[in-house]
Amino acid sequence: MTARTDQFTLERTADRIEILDVLARYSRAIDRLDYNLIREVYHEDAVDNHGKDLTVEEFVFWVRERHKTISVSWHSFGNVLIDFAGPDLALVESYAQVVQCYPPEAKDALSQLVGDVEGNTTSGKVLLISGRSVDRFERRNNRWKIQRRTIVYESSIVVDMQPEPKGGPSWVRGRRDGDDFSFQELRALGICQ
């Protein structure tokens, strides 16, 4: 590991910001089911371990299949510790919480993670997972991306899904696709098509 004084130079601060941006884009990619963006945050030869080692394409397939019936997914990173091991290598430990809503038809997707769930089966379930992502980031071609991700499970809570709040007619609703409001705004500003 490099000396702590080398961890906070102006150049390292820029590296930290770029790594944090990759983490935020990962959350957007999973929660909006943007499979191309998932690919963009990983190096092509990266490995993701959400219980077993998967290539990037295997991971994209796993997300696509597992998330088909999940109505809401919300990934949030809290504390993010970044330690540089060299000019182009960093270990990034991110504390994470994930909230996902599983309507009754998503029972199989939920049981993949937590096994059979007791209780009300007509309302669906909400899953809260606490854990960490331990990532090796590498900079290649002047871009920081994930080279290896391992999910470290800490705890989970499953509760019955409550009726959705009605909200006013002007309340913007989240979507899990390219028509989400964030993508509409990106297109309106000419940031993406």
TrEMBL record:
InterPro entries: NTF2-like_dom_sf, SnoaL-like. This is Nuclear transport factor 2 family protein. It comes from Bradyrhizobium commune. Residues 12-150 form the SnoaL-like domain. CDD domains: NTF2_like (cd00531).
